[in-house]
Every structure is written in structure tokens, then in C-alpha cells.
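The aim of this short unit is practical: by the end, you should be able to scan a pair of folded records and say something sensible about each. We start with the first protein, listed as its amino acid sequence and then its C-alpha cells.
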Amino acid sequence: MQPIPETSPRFSNLQLELLRLYSRDLPEADLVEIKHLLARYFAEKLTRRADQFWEEKGWTDDTMEEFLRTKMRSSSPPQPQ
């Protein structure tokens, strides 16, 4: 097995780190659990960012209700380019 490089134009730093950590086969149950952990991590990170954005804009529950009632799509067909 070749050593895992420190940097790579093909892989992100996260991918390289995961390759180093898990350079052996895992049971399927462990793999599924790790996928769920990563998904939960990124979902929570996105939720925190969305909450921050919400606060920066000063939005309230009433703002969201207004968004839901507002038609934001154009009914006109796309223009040819």
C-alpha cells in the first residue's frame, strides 16, 4: 500500500484525513454510523449558519409566513439566449 500524501490536487484535506484514519476496511454498521455522524455534523453546521443569517436579517416567524404567502417565481417563460 502506498503512503497517503499530505496534500493532493484530487482530494480535499477532509478526504485525505479520512483516508489516513480509515485506511482499513470497516464493518458495514460502522460505515453507516460514520456516514450518519458526518451528515449530522454538516446539517448542524448549516443550521447554525442559517440561524445566524436569520438573526442578521432580523427575521421573525411573521417574516417566514410572509415568505410562504409571496409568489417569488416569475410566470414568464425563460428568454432565449
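Turning to the second protein, read its sequence before its C-alpha cells, just as you did above.
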Amino acid sequence: MTHFKIVFFGSRGRVVAERTIPCESYWDACQWGWKNMPSKAEDFHTEEASYEEKVEESERENDLIILRAFHILRKRAGLTKGLT
């Protein structure tokens, strides 16, 4: 499995979103890009991700897991209402 970086572009070539995803091939990554294109995006570019991009995406995913875990703990302690 290879990681691919997908960059979505809006009007005038502005970057709307970036994602790093694991896929079997370049064409699978392109198919994922078409299926998951944000509504503001008009086009996208797919390329094999570098090692730094893979690590950064992994760290982001880990941070989200930690954030959700702490939210659950705060909710159980009665310190917060709900995750928005």
C-alpha cells in the first residue's frame, strides 16, 4: 500500500483541502479524489506522498484520537456537554 497526497483546488487554483491517504495505486487514489472532492473544489492533483507528509498525517490522526479520548473523560467527569 502506498500513501498518496491529494490536493483539491478551487477557483483560480486556490488550495481548498489536502489529504494523505493509503491506496493500492495511483488510479485508486484518483478515484478516491473524485468521490471525496469538497463542494468548493473544482479540480485535484494526486501524487505519491513523501515520508514527511505520511508522518504529519499520522500525527494528525493520533492528535484527533487523543482529543476524542480526553473529551470522553471530561464528559464522564461532567466537565463538558457534547462534542460539536
